[in-house]
Design brief:
512 residues, mainly alpha
């Protein structure tokens, strides 16, 4: 099952990635611990042999061999070889995911082009989408061990409802030396042509659009099959594997602690040598990085296996069949009632903000890095240019006095309290979490705050709903009742009735 930790890293914070280091499932520790134990075992055996079993003359010869191996290990370009290889494997991994066939576009086209509320129309639409799903099941059986374990034979596909017995007989009677995942797509085209002759597909344009979407779907099935057929070049995989293993074979020999060949005489202090570490920490870190890098490539080079981070192909099959049949059958011609939206008659729709997100409403819209700059004539009269001492986007903040804004600055944003609802709970101390009363705010034109704008100034106290007229000042006024979702505002009447602050009725000054 795919390991997802997206919510854990939604916000950058101190030690954000550190919490991920203590996970086991899908971790580098789970992938690498066996190789690490083998490396430590070989290193320890060689270290004990050098310290205990070798004679002084043998130690001297071994020291020469160790120095040679240590120099030779540095000649292997590990970073370049591994870096390029893993980059190509990751690109291939993402391309394979994007080649998985999804019926979402096809089911929308089938719903819009194949008409009929009777049983014949329902059967046509459901059969068309079943053929599309059958094609993806057949190709996934050919590339994914999880799907093959679920559908080991065609009979299991029939029992799952993707194929009927009659279709199974036709499928098996078609003799071909190649994979026959494309056969249901041909059935799809034949059935679509029959629907066109019956008038279920009303024109050739709709029929062409239907076949175009099917061809894109079939193309993804073919691409997925060819990714499984054409593997990453074996020679490069062998080169990278040999490079990593030979590098650490040299490290096992060359990174051992070596005794001083000339011990100091009695009463004399010898030269300060290397620290005798029984466990080579830096070499272990190198092993963890390089061998871990290789294990990452080994895991994702074929994401259709049964590793922790391989694709959830069985769940994709379930989702695709359920969603596609719902779209073309239960949802065919099913529309919610249509009416005027909440912002009917308003020049500029402005959805409400909760208190937790009110600070976002105070940020001006980005209009471009040169929006507030005006070009000045050049001294030689040839064209226009940016004033000297200020380059676009140099990050110096406000422009000089002689650079005038080309448009008037927008008025300060003014917020009005328009309703409240409930309490939001949860969280781990992030901004906007905890337990708080939720209020809804909207911009109000024509009012100037009496002091500097601040998000806290725009939030009315829970027991005093009203409109904000200045920092710390609230004009009393009725707050519409909230109904339905937390962002719904109650009230009735026309788009201009009952608006504004007490005594005011200007446009955009309130809501009924």
């Amino acid at each position: 099952m795919t390991v997802s930790y997206t919510l854990r890293v939604a916000n950058a914070r101190f030690g954000g990635f550190s919490a991920l280091l203590f996970r086991w499932r899908g971790s580098i520790y789970k992938l690498l611990y066996k190789e690490l134990l083998v490396f430590l075992g070989l290193y320890g055996i060689l270290s004990l042999t050098y310290r205990i079993l070798l004679s002084p003359e043998q130690k001297r010869i071994y020291a020469q061999v160790a120095r040679y191996c240590n120099r030779s290990a540095d000649l292997i370009p590990m970073s370049f070889v591994l870096g390029f290889y893993v980059t190509q494997v990751v690109n291939r991994w993402w391309a394979q995911y994007r080649s998985i066939p999804l019926p979402d576009r096809l089911m929308c086209v089938v719903t819009a082009t194949v008409h009929g509320d009777d049983e014949r129309g329902r059967t046509l639409r459901r059969t068309l989408l079943r053929y599309a799903n059958l094609s993806s099941v057949l190709v996934l059986r050919s590339v994914s061990t999880r799907v093959l374990r679920r559908f080991p034979t065609i009979e299991h596909v029939v029992e799952a409802g993707f194929m009927s017995q009659e279709e199974k007989q036709k499928f098996e009677s078609l003799h071909s030396d190649f994979n026959k995942y494309w056969v249901p797509c041909v059935w799809f085209t034949n059935l679509a042509a029959q629907a066109r002759r019956e008038g279920r597909v009303r024109d050739d344009i709709a029929f062409g659009l239907l076949l175009e979407e099917l061809n894109q779907y079939r193309g993804k099935c073919s691409l997925l099959f060819h990714y499984d057929w054409i593997s990453f070049p074996l020679v490069y995989t062998q080169v990278v594997t040999i490079a990593v293993y030979s590098f650490f074979a040299f490290c096992i020999i060359g990174r051992q602690f070596l005794e001083d060949p000339k011990p100091p005489l009695k009463g004399q202090e010898g030269p300060l040598g290397d620290l005798d570490l029984y466990v080579p920490l830096t070499t272990l870190l190198q092993f963890f990085f390089y061998a871990g890098w290789l294990k990452v490539a080994e895991q994702i080079i074929n994401p259709f296996g049964e590793d922790d981070d391989d694709f959830e192909t069985n769940q994709l099959i379930d989702r695709n069949l359920q969603v596609s049949l719902l779209s073309v059958d239960d949802m065919y011609g099913d529309l919610p009632p249509m009416g005027r939206d909440r912002y009917w008659g308003e020049a500029a729709a402005q959805p409400p903000y909760t208190v937790a997100s009110a600070a976002d409403s105070l940020r001006p819209s980005f209009m471009g890095s040169t929006f507030n700059l005006r070009l000045v004539p050049k001294e030689n009269g040839e064209g226009w240019g940016v004033p000297a001492g200020l380059e676009p986007g140099d990050g110096r903040g406000l422009p000089p006095a002689h650079v005038q804004p080309s448009f008037p600055a927008p008025p300060p944003l003014h917020l009005q309290y328009v309703g409240g609802a409930g309490a939001v709970r949860g969280g781990d101390g992030e901004r906007g979490w905890g337990s708080l009363e939720v209020f809804y705010l909207r911009p109000v034109s024509g009012h100037q705050p009496a002091g500097p704008a601040h998000p806290s100034d725009a939030v009315p106290p829970p027991d005093r709903p009203g409109s904000h007229t200045g920092p710390g000042t609230y004009a009393p006024g009725p707050a519409p009742a909230c109904a339905g979702s937390p962002h719904r505002r109650g009230g009735s009447g026309g788009p201009k009735s009952g608006r504004g602050l007490p005594g005011g009725g200007g446009r955009g000054e309130g809501r009924s």
